[in-house]
Every structure is written in structure tokens, then in C-alpha cells.
Input
Amino acid sequence: MPRYLYSAIFYCLLPFILLRLLFRGIAAPNYRKRWLQRFGFYTASDLSKETIWLHAVSVGETLAAVPLVKALQAKYPDYRLLITCMTPTGSERITAAFGDSVDHSYAPYDMPDAVARFIQRVQPKMLIIMETELWPNTVAACYKRQIPVILANARLSEKSARGYARVTSLSAPMFAQLTAVAAQHGDDGTRFTALGLPAEKLCVSGNIKFDLDLNAQIRKSAEALRQQWRGTSRRPILVAASTHRGEDEIILQAFSLIKQSVNNALLVLVPRHPERFNQVGNLCLEAGFSLARRSNNNPTDTADILLGDTMGELMTFFGACDIAFVGGSLVANGGHNMIEPAAWGKPTLSGLSVFNFAEVSRLLAESGGLTLVEGAAPLAEAVIGLIKSPEQSQQMGQQAQQVAEANRGALERLLTVIDNSLRQ
Output
């Protein structure tokens, strides 16, 4: 009964959901495209192969899925991989990362008819969901059809757990119907079992985001970019990555303080969402800084700030910088992936809002590889200290890298869970 009520509410809200898509399409026109896919109208390219369906809601989950997808392609060459997401930026990342080696669609809205239509057209052998993008009707539809559902690289914050606990009559059956959960940490696993996941379905696998592959090509690209940005004056480079609304202003205030002490510093500012690129660029100009844009390949010799207004280059940016700040953390957004700069051996800074990466931030902070700051002045002070003390900066980067290396191996444990479920 609770799921039927949930479905009825979803159908009632559908006009507002579509209006939101139209509204978002003003700033990001791709939100106005491919609506039929969101209602399950997807045509499979090849039904001669069995399909593994992997869902990654947006950019962060897609990036986390890259090593998993490549491992699945190597391990199961006779299967076709279909990757779904919910956002245009996620869609762009899927296309950029995998090209035509996988099939791709938007995921259907969690309405019984849309989900049933999609499953009938795709006929998946398994559904792998990245992190915590759980939908009751989708899980129930797969369970009814005996399609295994794996929650991979799963995380569940205390805040999210409290939300699920408020609707136990809806969420508990959903958790019980999952085939397996590969959790990032024991605390995540405890929250899943408290919400109804049978203990025998839980595996604490670790975080596959530690299993990064910094291959020779990306290292070469990062070094070339570093030399270009530093120039003959060997200017220090700060990357502020994945920033959100309300956070850029704080970073710009901090950068003003940094420039008073280190006049030739370069800030590479990378907003999280492409629709904010122009807005953030205007903020930089209004703050009195000279601005270059990555998309225009502007020279950075005389620029104070380089706006990272491209997609898919952030890992290279981390490799090219001296100091990394990871955004979504000076505002109450929960933070983003600080494993990436750590893997490069970069001293890493973050705000205090890190609940999306609670265990990762704890490991890095305890090792000395991550410093948490609150506000513009502490951020500026931390950056200035690292610029003026190369030894401290190098040590901090090494400590971050040691944590990244020590926590590899989650991917192999996750593949074991997937293999066991496919064989059932």
C-alpha cells in the first residue's frame, strides 16, 4: 500500500517535474531533450547480448563508475553494458568516458509503467546502482522479475538514514528486496541493515574511488598543463574544484587575501555545474580579477583566475596544481571527492561540510593530508602557509597519497559481489 501511495504522489507531481525540466532548460538546453527516455521509451541497440544495466545518477557517480565499467567490459565481454543517468552533465560524462563502447540512456522516472516499459525493452540481466540512488518502483520491478539489484560503492549518511527511517513502510521493503549491498564503510553498512537490509546481503567493500588509474597519458597531460600555467615565473597554482552557489564568493574573498601575500598566485576555479560557468565568470570580474577561460584556451600569463569552464578535465587539473581545494564543502552540500587530488599527492583543503565523504575525509585529515577550514580567512591562511612552506606542502601531499594508495582494492571486492549475483 505505501508504494501505491508513493506512485500516486509521483504521478500527481509529474507536471511540476516537467516544468522544472523546462525551467532548468533555460540555462542548460539539454534538459529539454530526450524526454521520452525518461518515460521508458528506449530502443536497445542489440538484444542478441545479455545486458548489464548500470545506473549512475550524475557526474560524481559516473566518474566513480569508470574503473568499474572498464573492469566489467574486460570480465564480461559477452554482455552489453547500458549506463543510465538523470542529468545532462552525467550524460556528457558517460559519452566522454566510454564513447560507443556502451549503450546510454536517461533512466526512467520511478513510475510503474515507465519502469516496466524500460525493463521490457532492455531485458537486463542485472541492475547495478552506484552509491545511493534507490527508487522503490524500480527495485520492486526488478525483484518481481528476478533481476538482481546490486547497490555498489554504497554510502548512507546519518542524514539520509534519518530520511529513510521516516518512511520505513516504503523503504524497508525496498532494502529487503536488494540482492546485495557493497558498502564503502562499516558505518554505512550498519545504517543499511538498521533500515531493513538483511545482514547476509551486506559486504563492506571499501570505496572504489580509491581505485584510480593515473595512466601515462593523463600524467603527461597534467605536466604539460602545469608548465603552461606556471610560466617562467613559476607561479603557484590553486585549484578550487566543484564549487557551488554561495561558495564561489567565499573563495574569491580568500583569493583576495592570498594575492596580498602571494601576488603571482593563479586560481583555477571550476564550478560544479556547467550552467553556472558564465555566472561565476562574472563574479570573478566583479571582484576585480583578470579572467581567462579554459574553453577559449586563453593564455594565463597575466590572468589572476582561470575559469575551468570545460568538462572532463578536472583530474588533469588536479595533477597540474600545487594545492587543491575541494568544493561543495563551504556550503551545506556535503563535499565532493577529495580522493582525486590525494591520489596525485597534492595537499588538499576542504570546508567543514563533508558528510558525503565522511570516512574519506576522516582518513585524510587524521593522516595530515587534508586540512578542513571554515570561511575565507582560514582558507587563505592555509593556502599561504603551504605556498610559503614547500616542505610542509610536499609532506602533506605525500601523506594524502599514502592514504589513497593504502585504501585501494575495493573494486576487486565489488566485482566478486557482482560475479556471485550473476551466477545465482
